[in-house]
Amino acid sequence: MANLLPAARRRRPKRRAEARRTILDASEALLVEDGGERFSMRRLAERCGVRAPTLYHYFGDKQRLLDALLEERCRGLVAGLQRIRLGDDPVENVRAMCRVFARFGLRHPTHYALLAAPRAPSCARPPSAEKARALLEHPWDRLAAQGRLSADRTVARQAFWAFLHGFILLRTTRTDLEWAPELLEAGVDALLRSFVRQAVETSGVRR
């Protein structure tokens, strides 16, 4: 039956997909050029050469448009986390995931700032962002199950999040400062020593 449909009707989904892609690409360019604070639907409409109602027709509102962009970027973060060869020791997995997460934030500072910004409780985060969060939390669940955490699991996770968040924001906004190349690894190691018991202590083996 599909081949009996008028040609114009068959082309409609393709045109819609192309229009969405054009808008998303223009949005990406504006974000990179001006940052999230100056981003507006009016400026985007001017960049795309369309009227603002056209943007709302395809995306509903500004937040949904930005979330569509964040969804695409976070898929890359998820792919990076999933490429990690997870070992038996959750501590090493935490280290590897911190590197991937920090690299994502440094490469995409504007997207990261939008992702980290507060939002209304009724406004869910993009699905890929939630998937990335679950992947990042998994090693902590394993450490807790092994009895290796010396503090509450939520406290440990939030301490790491606070460090990584500060690391990314400072590195991307204070480019006038010379940051030590080993800062990330040193910070992660210091937090691990603070919150994770050694395996020999957990097992009761003394050396």
Overview of this structure, please?
The relative contact order is 0.09. α1 crosses α2 (41-48), α5 crosses α6 (109-116) and α5 (90-107) packs parallel to α8. The chain contains ten helices and no strands. The longest helix has 28 residues, at 7-34. The protein is 72% helix and 0% strand. It has helices at 7-34, 41-48, 52-59, 62-82, 90-107, 109-116, 127-145, 153-173, 183-195, 199-203. With 207 residues, it is mainly alpha-helical. The chain is elongated, with a radius of gyration of 22 Å.
Features:
mainly alpha, about 210 residues, elongated
Give the gist of this structure.
The protein is mainly α.
Cα distance spanning the termini: 76 Å
Query: What's the overall average pLDDT, rounded?
Result: 88
Task: Please tell me what the overall shape is.
Answer: elongated
Q: What would you call the structural class?
A: mainly alpha
* Helix content range: over 70%
Order of helices and strands: HHHHHHHHHH
Radius of gyration from CA coordinates: 22 Å
Poorly predicted runs are 199-207
Q: Note the main sheet.
A: none
**Treating each run of at least 4 consecutive H or I residues as one helix, how many helices?**
10
- Count of DSSP strands: 0
**Fraction in beta strands:** under 5%
